[in-house]
Automatic annotation (TrEMBL):
One Pfam family hit: adh_short
InterPro entries attached to this UniProt entry: NAD(P)-bd_dom_sf, Sc_DH/Rdtase_CS, SDR, SDR_fam
PROSITE patterns: ADH_SHORT
Upper classification of the organism: Bacteria, Candidatus Galligastranaerophilus
Membership in a protein family: Belongs to the short-chain dehydrogenases/reductases (SDR) family.
PANTHER family: 3-OXOACYL-(ACYL-CARRIER-PROTEIN) REDUCTASE, 3-OXOACYL-[ACYL-CARRIER-PROTEIN] REDUCTASE FABG
UniProt name for this protein: SDR family oxidoreductase
Matches recorded under CDD domains: SDR_c (cd05233)
Gene Ontology BP, a term: monocarboxylic acid metabolic process
């Protein structure tokens, strides 16, 4: 599988950076993107909250690599606020980045994958979309919508040897989550996670590597909760 071309959104920190490093070390060619200005080969600085930029990203990746074999939709934003305090602008930004842009990128790469009769698509969702989260209803809704896209697209592309799967992380040990929680809040969060730990970004990266391998060619349309048991209840 090494030598395949990967388009990875949100590739410069946290989960995305772990996926990027894992794939690069495994011999994949990876085209990354984020809103940061980074001097890196096969990289585009782009704001994907503007859905018009999805086509710009796809075209840049195609020009750089010639073909996109694998798409990993990792980019996304989190919004924690009661529904009555969620503004229309916040909702639009959330839906654009977490759902519309991933769907557009899927639509662009699907043409090539169908033609080549091979492809892999992985959507990075969230445990919030699988089980719900109070005060994060808009965020959970976008990730739940991504799950519906994953299942439907898996059916649509199955005959072309293209698999589509989703990974739903729980709490992940990243700078973002560590900065968002006080020490007391972190202890409270750990107390409701059955394994009493946060997921490591590398665990998600390793699962991506498996899902794009030929060993996983029979696995499609699945939403996998990688959450240290959080989705199972207390």
């Amino acid at each position: 599988m090494s030598g395949k071309n990967v388009l990875l959104t949100g590739s410069t920190k946290g989960i995305g950076l772990a996926i990027y490093n894992e794939l690069k070390s495994s011999g994949y060619r990876v085209f990354g993107c984020s809103r940061a200005n980074i001097e890196q080969k096969d990289y585009l600085r782009v704001d994907l909250t503007d859905t018009k930029n999805a086509e710009i990203l796809y075209s840049a990746a195609k020009e750089a690599m010639g073909n996109i074999d694998i798409l990993i939709n990792n980019v996304g934003i989190y919004l924690y606020t009661p529904i009555e305090k969620t503004s229309a602008d916040e909702l639009k930004r959330l839906v654009n980045l977490n759902f519309i842009t991933p769907q557009l990128l899927c639509s662009y790469v699907a043409t090539d994958m169908k033609k080549n009769k091979w492809g892999r698509i992985i959507n990075i969702g969230s445990i919030s979309g699988a089980v719900g989260e109070a005060n994060a209803s808009a965020y959970a809704a976008t990730k739940s919508g991504l799950s519906g896209l994953t299942k439907s697209l898996a059916l649509e592309l199955a005959q072309y040897n293209v698999t589509v799967n989703q990974i739903n992380p729980g709490w992940v040990d990243t700078n973002l989550s560590n900065e968002a929680l006080s020490e007391e809040e972190k202890l409270e969060t750990l107390d409701v996670i059955p394994q009493r730990r946060f997921i490591e970004p590398k665990e998600i990266a390793k699962l991506c590597t498996y899902l794009i391998s030929d060993d996983a060619k029979g696995l499609s349309g699945q939403s996998i909760n990688l959450c240290a048991g959080l989705s199972c209840g207390a």
